[in-house]
Amino acid sequence: MKIKSAHIDGFGKWHDQDFDFSASPQVIFGSNEAGKTTLATFIRSILFGFANAKGKNRYQQYKPRATSTYGGSILVEDHGTLYRIRRTAGKGGGLVTVTDMDGHRFGEDKLAKMLANVDQDLYQAVFSFNQEKLANIKDLNPDEVHHQLKQVGAVGSRQWDQLIASLVKRGDELYKPRGRKPQLNRHLDEYRRLTQQVAQANRKYDQYVAANRDQQRQKAAVQKWQQEETDLTAQVNRLDQLSRLWPIYDAWKKGQPQAAMNNGVAPDDVEQVNQLRGQFNGLTAQLGTLRDESARLQKDVTQFDQDELADYHQHRYDYQRLQTALLQLQSRDDQYHQQQGRIEQLFAERNRLQRRYGHQLPKPLSEQETVTLQSLLGDYPVSATRNRRMSAWLLGLGAALFILGMFGHHGVVMLMGLIVLAATGAWLYKANNEASRSTNHQQASLQRFGRLHGLTNFPVSEWLPMQADLYRVAELDQQIAN
């Protein structure tokens, strides 16, 4: 909306005064008390209503003293059409009329549509300012300035901001990168703690299994060496017995060599005894080493934390269940982010459709309403075309008969041509009157239909083609609501 001019009937110090704002930019200046603030207050009052006489508002009234007329009008341009907005004294901020250049009159609903989402507070915050407010602009941060400008340039942006804020709040309740209270954060902390416990238990369990395996190997080795020890002990006992008998045998051998040989005591037996004694000493030393290693492994197994191992085995299925729950939570988080992206796509498509028409979009027509609109748009052009074809054919026939009668000196033929021409003219006059009445009736019906369904802001030729986009917008709104 662009303000072109203003006419003040009576407002403060101004009486029957005109102001032209056609220059771009338009600068209004003057000394103190020249009426600049009064003019600015007049424009704001025409758009949003006169101040009442209650409380502090009574000081905001500018009722004139020299005339009984309180109010005036401004000429504005909205989407290429000029409108005269007039407000006079009355209840609820004054009586408002909006008139276009064709003389059609509208009420406050038309003014509300022209203002869109701009209310008096937003107007005073963005479009109306004084030196004090200019000085306070430096206190606004970029986000606040961007928020104010976005409310001016986008219809319904406040509802969008509220929806976005609610979605962000719901997301924060589920997860924050550095939060502790959101649901996902608590589950992730619990998962990390349990994962560490599982890892510690797994490490200790592996140590336990390795130590138990070594112990079994050592036990098998000990049993093997114990069996060898038993066998060697028997051999040692036999060799000790032979060793004790060796002096007797040696003496006997010197005295009775031939008899000793005959009794089976040979020099090879003595050599074998010496070899077995050496083997026995080596095996005894190795057996001592194995016993020391077995004692050490037994000590390691005894020192292993049996309570932690039992806790691991007891809660092993709980750990697996928690791991499955975490995977499910991660899947839900991925779905949540996918839904966020889908919502942004839906908003983007709806914004493109909204920008295509530049107005607040109405609801789509029902099937019956679409049939009614097609009927209103299609009746008259067919009948008018048929009347034009019939009139052209009759006029041509009458003119041909008249010319033939005139050149052929046939009075009857000429008279018939005149009769046809006269009848055609009368019929055409009547048909044009009926077509005019039909056209007026059709236009009135279309205007009523447009006002009833909120289509007056759009050209009549777009009413039917735009229904597909309106159905798509309604579908997008439903998907966003879901």
UniProtKB/TrEMBL annotation:
<feature type="transmembrane region" description="Helical">
    <location>
        <begin position="413"/>
        <end position="429"/>
    </location>
</feature>
<feature type="coiled-coil region">
    <location>
        <begin position="184"/>
        <end position="242"/>
    </location>
</feature>
<dbReference type="InterPro" id="IPR038734">
    <property type="entry name" value="YhaN_AAA"/>
</dbReference>
<keyword id="KW-0472">Membrane</keyword>
<feature type="transmembrane region" description="Helical">
    <location>
        <begin position="390"/>
        <end position="407"/>
    </location>
</feature>
<keyword id="KW-1133">Transmembrane helix</keyword>
<dbReference type="Pfam" id="PF13514">
    <property type="entry name" value="AAA_27"/>
</dbReference>
<keyword id="KW-0812">Transmembrane</keyword>
<keyword id="KW-0175">Coiled coil</keyword>
<dbReference type="InterPro" id="IPR027417">
    <property type="entry name" value="P-loop_NTPase"/>
</dbReference>
<feature type="domain" description="YhaN AAA">
    <location>
        <begin position="1"/>
        <end position="204"/>
    </location>
</feature>
<protein>
    <recommendedName>
        <fullName>YhaN AAA domain-containing protein</fullName>
    </recommendedName>
</protein>
